Amino acid sequence: MRLILLGPPGAGKGTQAQRIVEKHGIPQLSTGDMLRAAVSAGTEVGKRAKAVMDAGKLVSDDIVIAIVSERIDAPDCSKGFILDGFPRTLVQADATESMLSAKGLDLSAVIEIKVDDVVLADRVAGRYTCANCGAGYHDTNLKPKVEGVCDKCGSTHFKRRPDDNAETVRTRMSAYYKETAPLLGYYYAKGKLHSVDGMAEIDTVTAEIDAILAGL
Ligand code: AMP
Question: Sorting pLDDT into bands at 50, 70 and 90, what band is 141?
């Protein structure tokens, strides 16, 4: 199963991707996570991407396409994968199609998580992850069961993204509407687009996605 999750920052792509990983055993390929890892490791790609990411703008297509193309060749992607945060431009969408068809693969579905813009800034400002295992949490919507302790690994260390602040979120939303929203029409025309209501409870969104995946 090869899936793409589409939606603005704060829609819940990462949260839902983690649940699909748990249920279906296919990896989540988040270009944002891969780029943040490159920044932390101080690689050439990381050095080129850092300032662009801090500003909330999009990293160049050639960089992200190269990262994804290499990643989907890894053995853990043989049964499929979830693309989270990629493709984000029409150039990336065309590249995805070419790289999949060159490998004899096709896309199973694109799932759009629809949300009202007004909630996005709060959702993004409140989110954090476990510094050890990467599990995602939110100050009000998704707290750990025991305060300050990760449900998944028991770590007590958490982190917030430097680009999850009100100003950068505005730039990231503009990038979404300008560059990424056209992908909805692109995938609709290909008969691949499914939409879920991202304003519903997290478990309800998961159930809606499960129903789509069951019908593939
Ligand atoms: P995300 O974790 O998906 O919100 O991505 C964080 C940041 O990484 C974005 O604001 C961009 O600067 C960069 N980034 C992630 N994925 C892409 C992509 N597919 N194309 C361009 N830039 C990206």
Answer: confident
